[in-house]
């Protein structure tokens, strides 16, 4: 049995593929000089990585160090291309059988990997895991940022975590390019992290008090009403139903409704609010399987919850439970800094926001109690908000021709919405894994 260092990298997902190759080859050379057995290979899909793990198992080798060099979203490494991105979902990561040694370590040399993915990988795979908190760049020096201007494919190049324009503004960016920024030290996470509840259970009561009336989210609610099917004989599935406020509000417009959620305490609230609506039921969501028969639904809605779902496993389930003429509506919050051309929309969004504060003072008092509660901050720690480009590229690649809409804009986040129209134009969902 041989203990090896596995170095993997992407070249196709976004720009910089040739530089990721150089970074990986630089690391491989340095590890070999230290006397290690190294396996270095590009991976462009989830299946590529699984094939490597299978090869290690067949040959009786084990991974002492696992390195990934490439692009990343909040939920970890990204593969494929922008036109059709792939990403291991949290559910899939938990199922991975990786041939690690007992003292193995994993390193993710990609943007923001320390914020959510590295601690998640550590506790689910049982290995010490490292990642960067800030964004990454390419540097010709390990210690201080030095811009790479070389065309030599054999010249050393490093993945360099550091603050920059996106995180700290133009002044920090200037310091970076002047060579005054030191490399961010990789943050480490141990496998044992104590008892963790990733659901809304801890803040269920505060959440229920805040969103008792879903119409206080007027932009989101009005968009849903505008995009509902005209028929009132609708079978509706609400994925991530929370306290059931949306199904309660739509109860007169639908024939049957089912709400699913992972939070038991929120489901208790949902059942209480809909006790008189016998045509509406609630069930706990267990993994990425939807508890409905095939072709049962006319409409699936995910309101401010799609970011929590395991996209690749759950999308075929959504396709399965929907009728061919049925459709999917998604409304969610994503992160993205406001651009110059978006300022008119930002000002309009702020005007609507302050008008809403005047009309619903009690809601904003309850909202403040919710978002300042330690339980809410703990929940967000394990359920980060996705970036706009992650969700946009995912949805628009699965439904060619359909576009993500922007409902309102904030300084660092916005609400987006998506209407699939039907499920007949969805692109092939047979990904490389599972």
How does this model look, in words?
The mean pLDDT is 93. The longest helix is centred in the first third of the chain and has 17 residues. Helix content is 35%, strand content 24%. The chain is of the alpha/beta class and 434 residues long. The strands form five sheets. Strands 15-14-13-16-17-19-18 form a seven-stranded mixed sheet. β6 and β7 form a beta hairpin.
Descriptive labels:
434 residues; alpha/beta; 7-stranded mixed β-sheet; 6-stranded mixed β-sheet; 14 helices; 19 strands; globular
Radius of gyration: 23 Å
Instruction: Briefly note the structural class of the backbone.
Output: alpha/beta
N→C terminal distance: 28 Å
Shape: globular
User: Could you give a short account of the major beta sheet?
Assistant: 7 strands, mixed
Number of helices: 14
Mean pLDDT: 93
Layout: helices, strands, pairs:
Blueprint: E1 3-9, H1 17-33, E2 38-42, H2 46-59, E3 62-69, E4 72-73, E5 76-77, E6 79-81, E7 84-86, H3 90-95, E8 100-109, H4 117-125, E9 128-131, E10 136-139, E11 158-161, H5 165-177, E12 187-189, H6 204-210, H7 218-227, E13 235-239, H8 245-249, E14 256-261, H9 264-273, E15 280-284, E16 297-303, H10 311-321, E17 322-335, H11 343-359, H12 361-371, H13 374-382, H14 388-398, E18 405-409, E19 413-419
Parallel strand pairs: 1-2, 1-3, 3-8, 8-9, 13-14, 13-16, 14-15, 16-17
Antiparallel strand pairs: 4-5, 6-7, 9-12, 10-11, 17-19, 18-19
Short characterization:
This protein has 434 residues and is of the alpha/beta class. It has 14 helices and 19 strands.
């Amino acid at each position: 049995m041989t203990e090896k260092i596995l170095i993997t990298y992407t070249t196709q997902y976004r720009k910089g593929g040739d530089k990721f190759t150089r970074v990986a080859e630089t690391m491989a050379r340095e590890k070999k000089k230290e006397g290690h057995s190294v396996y270095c290979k590009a991976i462009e899909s989830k299946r590529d990585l699984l094939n490597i793990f299978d090869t290690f198992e067949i040959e009786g080798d084990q991974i002492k160090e696992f390195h990934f060099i490439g692009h990343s979203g909040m939920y970890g490494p990204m593969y494929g291309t922008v036109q059709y991105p792939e990403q291991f979902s949290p559910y899939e990561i938990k199922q991975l059988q990786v041939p690690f040694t007992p003292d193995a370590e994993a390193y993710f040399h990609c943007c923001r990997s320390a914020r959510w993915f590295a601690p998640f990988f550590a506790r689910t795979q049982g290995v010490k895991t490292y990642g960067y908190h800030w964004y990454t760049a390419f540097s010709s020096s390990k210690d201080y940022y030095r811009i790479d201007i070389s065309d030599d494919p054999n010249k050393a190049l490093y993945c360099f975590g550091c603050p920059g324009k996106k995180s700290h503004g133009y002044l920090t960016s200037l310091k970076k390019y002047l060579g005054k920024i030191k490399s961010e030290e990789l943050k480490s996470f141990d496998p044992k992290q104590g008892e963790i509840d990733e659901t809304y259970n801890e803040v269920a009561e505060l959440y229920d008090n805040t969103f008792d009336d879903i119409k206080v989210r007027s932009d989101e609610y009005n968009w849903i009403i505008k995009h509902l099917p005209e028929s009132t004989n609708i079978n509706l599935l609400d994925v991530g139903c929370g306290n059931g406020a949306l199904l309660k509000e739509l109860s007169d417009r639908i024939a049957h409704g089912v709400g699913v959620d992972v939070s038991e305490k929120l489901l208790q609230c949902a059942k209480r609010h809909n006790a008189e609506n016998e045509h509406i039921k609630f069930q706990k969501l267990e993994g990425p399987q939807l508890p409905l028969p095939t072709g049962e639904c006319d409409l699936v809605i995910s309101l401010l919850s799609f970011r929590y779902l395991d996209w690749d496993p759950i999308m075929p389930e959504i396709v399965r439970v929907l009728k061919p003429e049925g459709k999917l509506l998604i409304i969610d919050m994503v992160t993205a800094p406001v651009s110059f051309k978006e300022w008119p929309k930002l000002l309009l969004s702020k005007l609507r926001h302050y008008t809403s504060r005047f009309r619903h003072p009690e809601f904003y008092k309850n909202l403040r109690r919710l978002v300042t509660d330690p339980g809410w901050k703990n929940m967000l720690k394990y359920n980060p908000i996705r970036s706009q480009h992650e969700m946009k590229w995912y949805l628009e690649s699965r439904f060619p021709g359909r576009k993500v809409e922007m409902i309102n804009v904030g300084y660092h986040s916005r609400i987006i919405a998506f209407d699939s129209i039907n499920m007949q134009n969805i692109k092939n969902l047979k990904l490389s894994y599972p």
